[in-house]
Amino acid sequence: MSLAWIALILSGMLEAVWATALDASKGFRRFWPSAIFLLTFAASMAGLAYAMGEIPVGSAYAVWVGIGAVLTAAWALITRQERATVLRVVLLLGLIGCVVGLKAVS
């Protein structure tokens, strides 16, 4: 696996962190979640930009969003902010399959 793919995967993981921190910041009214959002957002964008130097934009963006979306949704299920249903889990597994598929054909 190339460094670009590793950067992309880590950047997707950071997307989940910044999305969760953004929610916890309550409209940027809480300092620490806001600071975490800003730092992880910048790092996530930098990693995505780096990865796009080697990976086509469509694949890179789809993988980045997919990783971030699945991890953000999984965290919401784990922390019980959202209710886990069979359909929700199946759809998240479908997203994971699509991300893996994009990596396989890229």
Automatic annotation (TrEMBL):
Subcellular location: Cell membrane
Transmembrane regions listed in the UniProt entry: 35-53, 60-78, 84-105
Membrane-topology descriptor: Multi-pass membrane protein
Keyword list, A-Z: Cell membrane, Membrane, Transmembrane, Transmembrane helix, Transport
Pfam families per UniProt: Multi_Drug_Res (PF00893)
SUPFAM superfamilies referenced in this protein's UniProt entry, alphabetically: Multidrug resistance efflux transporter EmrE (SSF103481)
Domain of life assignment: Bacteria
Principal localisation: membrane
Family: Belongs to the drug/metabolite transporter (DMT) superfamily. Small multidrug resistance (SMR) (TC 2.A.7.1) family.
Name of the protein in its database record: SMR family transporter
